[in-house]
Amino acid sequence: MNTLFHPLMVLLAGGVLVEAQEFTLSVKNMTLDESRSCPGGYGGYAMVMTKVSEVKKAPKAVSASPLYGRMDNAKSERLLFFLDESQGTGKGYDRLVADLNGNGDLTDDPVFSKLKEGPQEQNEDYEQANFGPVELPESKSQGIWRPRFYADMYLYNKRELKSASTEERHIGQIRIMTASLLETTVEVNGIKQKFGVVDGNCNFSLPDPATVTTIHRRPNDPGSWYLMPGDFYVRDMNGSGIYDRTATESDAQIFSSVVYFKGKPFFARLSQDLKGIRFEPYTGATGQISVKEGVDSIILGWQGGAGAWDGLTPDIIEGKAEVPAGAYRISSFTLTGKKTASDWIKTTSRELPEKSYAVATGKIVRLDVGCPLVVEVSANKEIDNQGRESSLMGAARSLFGGGSSKATILRLDVVVLGAAGERYSGFFGSAGGYVPPPRFEIKDSTGKELASGNFEYG
């Protein structure tokens, strides 16, 4: 194989020599359906506007309301788009031009027609269509891989097209999804499976590790530490021949320098020309983490000796996982509660207190997240700046005595918290879909019911 790898023997504990294993990668081009369902291929986003200042020149439009898109990308030039209705105004946006040469002139780039495949909808308020695959110029190739993508158009603010304003207006967005991946079949430590590398953020560059960020999810939220994924490995874990993704399970794993096979950590290295991937048994110092019952998958941030953070998806076996020694933070994890093997509820936490765990050589560190769970319900009266009750919860007035503006309006909130103060959201059941939202009852001091209903979300 023509890669930058060199033969390597690894000395394991006990003096056993193990040869690093290398596997040939090939490019797999995906259909639209494969791209849309590819785990880890969440893509990038371009805002769709009535005008974009960076567009220097555009094709002559058939539509009276041509649209423009702009995707800002840290690792590549800004990508501009042009959308037109070839059948006339109001007939639907069915032509897309992408500024593939990056010169701001959209008259010298290829035109892509709307695909017949994929979700499609068109009405006065909303429109969806798909375009592609769009292949970048040869000059954008990276080794054997030449980036290509599908464009999924969502126009959810079409009423703004009727405005007489000449200002730049936001009409929707284009989701950019990778249309290819690198793929091979690996056989490591007794595990044989289809294995791939995906340009998850669709920035036309491989590989991108996760980066540390702070996520703010609601007003006045101080934010929580989080590893923002870049690219992903995809692994056919159940041998089905496809990479699966459901509401509760995914064959995608955050791109990392360490990959697990049957509970053991291995260094993973891509060759510079992307023709191969090599796995070497991890020979550094290791310890263990232990988790509570129900924690069945976890993504950790690992800070090794170099100080940089790396994402780890360790194999949890009987409540424990072997991990490289170093400092750790939890980025997210999944918790499962079971009545029987076929009757379960799963939930995920991505909002955790900023706590670090130090894993020393040969030591076991307990991660204190998980059960028991506590449900906290809060009720707050809404008052505006003029001292009048807010209309934000106006729909609730009927619960407290009709439509009077003097009725008491309460904002009710329910939060599920874990043992370490982590917050959970998105409960899924074995029957499929979200668990129904919880009900509430409001009673006075005598036990008389004043109101009842459901919270908004499950």
Structure, briefly:
By secondary structure, the chain is an all-beta fold. Helix content is about 0%, strand content about 45%. Among the domains are: about 35-180, no CATH class; about 375-455, no CATH class.
Count, helices: 1
**Helix/sheet category:** mainly beta
Uncertain parts: 6-16, 385-404
Name the shape in a single word: globular
Give me the side-by-side strand order of the main sheet.
9-8-7-6-5-13-12-11-10
Number of strands: 35
Percent helix, as a range, is under 10%
- What is the arithmetic mean of pLDDT? 87
Q: How far apart lie the N and C ends?
A: 52 Å
Characterization of this structure:
Among the domains are: 35-178, no CATH class; 374-454, no CATH class. 1% of the residues lie in helices and 45% in strands. It contains 1 helix and 35 strands. A 9-stranded antiparallel beta sheet has the order 9-8-7-6-5-13-12-11-10. The protein is globular. The relative contact order is 0.11. Residues 6-16 and 385-404 have low confidence and may be disordered.
